[in-house]
């Protein structure tokens, strides 16, 4: 329960409190018309005197202000639900947009990549074909009598016996001081 | 109120429409959508490539395009389109214009266009042009390996060779036909595997070229040169003539498709004598140092058997077993095999696989022919003619397999042309299952026969195959061919088989030339020089140094 004290409109403090915004304050303010305040100016003070008692009485009484009625629980729950639903809707819209853009992106990415794969496969096929066609062409040229090439003959071949494989030699670290410095640049 | 009513009416209308679309026409529309989303595309490759033992590609899939035009949709005048397309499809503009006039749409202008040409045609940005892609198997080496690899026909069906016998290994798995992600066509699960051959295309080229020149020189009907690594049964070269270009299989005769080295039988003649000697040695009927008397000509159960050189040199008199091979004495062979029980002789021939297939991994193999056991045992003449390589028949491939037993210490290996599936790094990922080699001769027996065969090349009928610095074993063969009436006619089939090097026997080379013409057409004059030329290259490719080097 909110109580308000009827302020004295003559005091500056009362004026400040009157000017304080708020529905109850404004309602109270309407109870004291502006004309009344104007009448309290020094020129009219004599004519206002008969009502001073009633004002004094007002000063002493504390009235309860009409406030908003207390909300029932079901309304509060509904309000909470509404807020939750708003946030949820916002999230869902964001998720829907993200999913949509993701599907569009995946679609274009797959198309692009599959085109690239196709292109690469095509190139690989063409390279293989061209390479083998080249070998065939060279072989045909070599076989033509004009090339004057002969088949392999053992008498024209040098057979070298391969050396037995040796242990790999670890290179010894060379200190930078050991490098020979040339007295003057070479190649000029 | 009016507005509310209108809105309500619209909503009800939309709901009814939605329900109708979803419930009534839904499935139909879904099917239509799927149809539109489906992209009909041809996969770039349906089969794995085939490579030779050196990694050279001998068969590979590629894309080709067929050009269709629809003149009613052209955005340029007909002559303009014709002139632009002319150079790309290699057809005269006038001929193209004539084609354009045939009908309004769907005119097939050219097929087998390469990817590059298709790209250029697309680059012209003409309207009313369709390029339909298709797969095609390319054989870059043309006829070089046609008889081994075979070909794929226009419908994509394997028709011959390895393409046929290994189609399960060559084909990629069929893709799922439902549209994939983002409505893209399903992707064939490709891998980097290739089917690798045991054949070395360098040696194959040498063999094929020399075979062709020998056939031309002697005007022979057909011929084959086979090279085998006897240790494993790997075929290193298989030159067959006649052959064809598998890229243009439709131009070839049906006869050319036949790989006669595995599908046709011939009577081996004298090249079979070393095998008979090995059988006799294995049975203990003779010893390598035995001597026998060669009359030059003998009557045998009403028939006359004589040596081929009888008219020139008469009988050879008392000769060694080595001399029987050296002079290729028919009479000597008859005397050797006479000492063997015919039943045991027949069993030995059967144990060698005569009358059966070799199991080579090429299609359309024919099993050899051997007389019935009862006929062979009851008639002495059957065993006598078999002694010098006549009266039965086998394929050149089986002859090669039998000769390999003399080179590898008596083991009967399964000849094969496929090593298996290999990945990019050359590692085997799959290998065909083959029966284990069967021991048919004692290693000492094969070594003894090999040394006798060396004498044939050293100072016998095989002299033309000598190569300086190498010990070479060999045996000539000149057999009369039976004509269509089952009688021996004038035509011959000449052959020469060689095993190198004698010190470390490993490679077997067999050449068979069918119906060489001319008086001087014998195994020693036709086949032996051919085998020599192949051995020269073989020794270089296989890095076999000469002795004493």
Task: Give a description of the structure.
The complex is a heterodimer of chains A (188) and B (549). Chain A is built from six helices and two strands, in the order βαααααβα. Chain A has a two-stranded antiparallel ribbon with strand order 1-2. Chain A has 188 residues and is mainly alpha-helical. Chain A is elongated. With 549 residues, chain B is of the alpha+beta class. Chain B has two domains: 62-134, Alpha-Beta Complex (Penicillin-binding protein 2a (Domain 2)), CATH 3.90.1310.10; 201-541, Beta-lactamase. The chains are: A mainly alpha (188), B alpha+beta (549).
Rg for CA atoms of chain A: 52 Å
CATH architecture of the largest domain in chain B: 3-Layer(aba) Sandwich
- Count of distinct strands of chain A: 2
Number of E strands of chain B: 18
Percent of residues in helices of chain A: 55-70%
Cα-atom Rg of chain B, whole angstroms? Answer: 32 Å
Largest sheet, strands/sense/barrel of chain A? 2 strands, antiparallel
Mean pLDDT of chain A: 73
Q: What is the domain total for the residues of chain B?
A: 2
CATH superfamily of the largest domain in chain B: DD-peptidase/beta-lactamase superfamily
Q: Could you please say which CATH topology of the largest domain in chain B applies here?
A: Beta-lactamase
* General form of chain A: elongated
| Top CATH class of the largest domain in chain B | Alpha Beta
Helix content of chain B: 25-40%
The fraction of residues assigned to DSSP E strands of chain A is under 5%
Distance between the termini of chain B: 115 Å
Instruction: Please give the largest β-sheet of chain B.
Output: 7 strands, mixed
Largest interface: A-B, 27 and 38 residues
**Count of runs of 4 or more consecutive helical residues of chain B:** 20
In short:
The complex is a heterodimer of chains A (188) and B (549). By secondary structure, chain A is mostly helical.
Task: Give the key terms.
heterodimer; A: 188 residues; mainly alpha; 2 domains; elongated; disordered N terminus; B: 549 residues; alpha+beta; Beta-lactamase; 20 helices; 18 strands
């Amino acid at each position: 329960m909110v109580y308000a004290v009827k302020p004295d409109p003559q005091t500056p403090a009362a004026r400040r409190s009157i000017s304080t915004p708020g529905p109850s304050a404004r309602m109270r303010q309407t109870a004291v018309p502006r004309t009344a305040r104007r009448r309290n100016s020094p020129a009219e003070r004599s004519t206002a005197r008969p009502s001073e008692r009633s004002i004094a009485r007002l000063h002493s009484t504390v009235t309860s202000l009409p406030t908003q009625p207390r909300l029932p629980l079901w309304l509060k729950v509904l309000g909470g639900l509404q807020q939750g639903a708003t946030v949820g809707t916002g999230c869902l819209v964001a998720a829907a947009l993200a999913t949509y853009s993701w599907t569009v992106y995946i679609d274009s990415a797959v198309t692009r990549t599959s085109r690239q794969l196709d292109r690469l496969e095509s190139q690989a096929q063409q390279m293989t074909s061209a390479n083998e066609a080249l070998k065939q062409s060279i072989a045909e040229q070599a076989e033509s009598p004009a090339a004057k090439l002969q088949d392999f003959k053992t008498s024209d071949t040098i057979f070298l016996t391969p050396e037995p494989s040796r242990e790999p030699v670890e290179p010894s670290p060379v200190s930078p001081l050991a490098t020979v410095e040339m007295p003057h640049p070479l190649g000029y | 109120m009016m507005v509310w009513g209108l809105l309500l009416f619209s909503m009800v209308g939309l709901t009814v429409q939605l329900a109708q679309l979803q419930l009534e026409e839904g499935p139909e529309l879904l099917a239509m959508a799927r149809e539109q989303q489906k992209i009909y595309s041809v996969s770039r490759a349906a089969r794995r490539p085939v490579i030779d033992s050196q990694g050279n590609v001998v068969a590979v899939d590629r894309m080709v395009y067929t050009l269709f035009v629809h003149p009613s949709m052209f955005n340029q005048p007909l002559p303009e389109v014709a002139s632009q397309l002319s150079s790309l499809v290699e057809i005269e503009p006038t001929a193209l214009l004539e084609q354009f006039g045939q009908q309004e749409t769907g005119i097939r202008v050219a097929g087998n266009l390469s990817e590059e040409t298709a790209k250029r045609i697309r680059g012209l940005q003409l309207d009313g042009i369709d390029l339909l892609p298709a797969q095609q198997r390319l054989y870059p080496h043309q006829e070089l390996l046609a008889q081994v690899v075979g070909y794929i026909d226009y419908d994509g069906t394997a028709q011959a060779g390895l393409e046929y016998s290994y189609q399960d290994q060559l084909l990629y798995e069929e893709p799922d036909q439902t549209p994939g992600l983002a409505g893209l066509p399903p992707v064939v699960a490709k891998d980097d595997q290739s089917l690798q051959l045991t054949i070395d295309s360098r040696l194959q080229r040498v063999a094929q070229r020399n075979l062709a020149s020998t056939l031309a020189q002697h005007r022979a009907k057909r011929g084959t040169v086979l090279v085998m690594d006897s240790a494993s049964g790997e075929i290193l070269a298989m030159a067959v003539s006649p052959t064809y270009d598998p890229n243009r299989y439709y131009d070839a005769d049906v006869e050319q498709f036949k790989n006669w080295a595995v599908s046709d039988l011939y009577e081996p003649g004298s090249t079979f004598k070393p095998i008979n000697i090995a059988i006799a040695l294995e049975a203990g009927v003779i010893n390598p140092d035995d001597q026998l008397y060669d009359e030059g000509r003998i009557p045998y159960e009403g028939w006359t058997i004589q040596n081929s050189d009888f008219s020139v040199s008469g009988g050879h008199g008392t000769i060694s077993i080595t001399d029987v091979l050296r002079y290729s004495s028919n009479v000597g062979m008859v005397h050797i095999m006479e000492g063997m029980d015919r039943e045991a002789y027949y069993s030995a021939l059967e144990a060698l696989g005569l009358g059966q297939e070799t199991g080579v991994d090429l299609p359309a193999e024919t099993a050899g022919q051997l007389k019935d056991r009862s006929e062979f045992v009851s008639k002495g003449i059957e065993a006598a003619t078999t002694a010098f390589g006549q009266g039965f028949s086998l394929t050149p491939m089986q002859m090669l397999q039998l000769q390999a037993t003399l080179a590898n210490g008596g083991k009967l290996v399964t000849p094969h042309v496929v090593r298996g599936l290999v990945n990019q790094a050359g590692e085997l990922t799959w290998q065909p299952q083959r029966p284990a080699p069967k021991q048919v001769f004692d290693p000492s027996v094969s070594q003894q026969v090999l040394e006798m065969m060396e004498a044939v090349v050293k100072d016998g009928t095989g002299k033309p195959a000598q190569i300086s610095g190498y010990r070479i074993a060999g045996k000539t063969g000149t057999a009369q061919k039976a004509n269509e009436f089952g009688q021996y006619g004038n035509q011959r089939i000449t052959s020469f088989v060689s095993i190198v090097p004698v010190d470390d026997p490993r490679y077997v080379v067999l050449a068979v030339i069918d119906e060489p013409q001319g008086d001087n057409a014998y195994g020693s004059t036709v086949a032996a020089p051919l085998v020599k030329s192949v051995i020269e290259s073989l020794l270089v490719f296989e890095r076999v140094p000469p002795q004493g080097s």
